[in-house]
Amino acid sequence: MARNGSGTYSRPVADYQYDTVISETDVNTEMDDIATALTASIAKDGQTTPTANLPMGTYRHTGVGNGSARTDYTAMGQTQDGTVNWVDGGGAADAITATYSPAITGLVDGQICFVRATAANATTTPTFSPNGLTARTIVKDGGSALVAGDIAGDGHELILRYNLAGTQWELLNPAAVAAATASTTTPGIVELATAAEVQAGTDTGRAVTPQGLMGFGNISAATWFLDEDDMISDSALRVASQQSIKAYVAAQIAALTTITAGTPLVQNPFAINTSVTQAHGLGAVPTFFKIEFECLTAQHNWSVGNKIVLGAVGPGGSSVSGQVDIALDSTNVVAYIANSSFTIVNKTTRASSTLTPGNWKMTITPYLVA
To answer: How far is residue 361 from each of residues 243, 315, 354, measured CA to CA in Å?
Structure first.
């Protein structure tokens, strides 16, 4: 009967008795049973191949050697040392090879290999080939191509997981490659400009903070800045300073045409049929004159002090309402007053009314435009 299925061996025959004849059949039965039991046991020299799982009942194999084939046990020290699927790599920078022991004979989905690189990748499509298997492209981030330097160089410990569907190795720990400098068309790292760089105004890769924009100090060297009091360059692209704008405007105002009033000709009170001359002091023929009447005694609803401006008229032989002719030269203003009264408008009724000369003062003021 050999073992009973739980590992217990029971003799197939009863105990032999002293001073009795031993049955040939019993002896042969028992020997055959022992032979069967021994055959089912594990030989220490490795001859026996188990035909079923061997439960260890919480016990362990001790003193085992390092596994050397895919079907071997792995010794605890071998696992702890991490040498089962790690090796110092070989090959070239963009064609990495590795020789593992035990040898990897096929690739399965999710398989992890650790390998120490010998150089930095120079291309975007480096490959990895363990134990002479077909070289497969190394990618990152779920299938994205590497960039040069993702494999940092000699000594970079690479963690590679095989993706069966993509037939490619996923690099789980690419090097932290520095991002490119940002530009107006390329995303990347933005560096802040110093005050000197802000003043220069030529850098295209650095940014300016609000504080830097407000507090960078003297900008006289900035290429985008102008400080020209005369605005002579007529630039359409450069910014002018407040000081230069102020100076330019002041100069332009100073250069504008000026109007100078001469000494007025005054007849007080106004009298008809007269001729009055007044030196104006302008040193040139006045450009125009202004004539007005001021009320001295209330009349026609005009109050004392009210003024009626008859107009500003050009020089030389001009007349006002046909009653006053004005002659202008470089020295004098001459008024020739007719022998008739002026007609004015009643301030309230707007009716035409005759001016009483003694109730009004006439003033003629010459002006020179230069």
So the answer is: 50, 22, 15
Amino acid in position 10: S
Most confident of 38-52, 149-163, 202-216: 149-163
Per-position b or e across 29-68, b if 16+ CB within 10 A of its CB: eeeebeeeeeeeeeeeeeeeeeeeeeeeeeeeeeeeeebe
Whole-number CA gyration radius for the chain: 59
Tokens 């003629």 — which residue? 364
Segments making up each domain of the chain, as ranges: 1-55, 81-171, 191-255, 260-369
Global pTM reads: 0.46
Which tokens is 7 given?
Answer: 């590992």
The dotted CATH code for 260-369 is 2.60.40
What confidence tens digit (pLDDT) does each residue in 75-112 have?
988 888 888 889 999 999 999 999 998 899 999 999 99
Q: What is the DSSP letter of 48?
A: -
Question: CA distances (Å), 132 to each of 91, 96, 104, 135, 262, in order?
Answer: 11, 11, 9, 8, 112
Q: What is the pLDDT of residues 107-123, one digit of tens each?
A: 999 999 999 999 999 99
Q: Which amino acid is at 271?
A: A
Task: Looking at 180-332, list the stretches that DSSP marks H as alpha helix, in order from N- to C-terminal side.
Answer: 195-200, 210-215, 242-255
b/e per residue 287-319 (b: at least 16 CB within 10 A): bbbbbbbbbbeebbebeeeeebebeebebeebe
Amino acid at 345: V
239-240 and 168-171 strand pairing: unpaired
List, for residues 33-52, the tens digit of each pLDDT value: 999 888 888 898 989 999 88
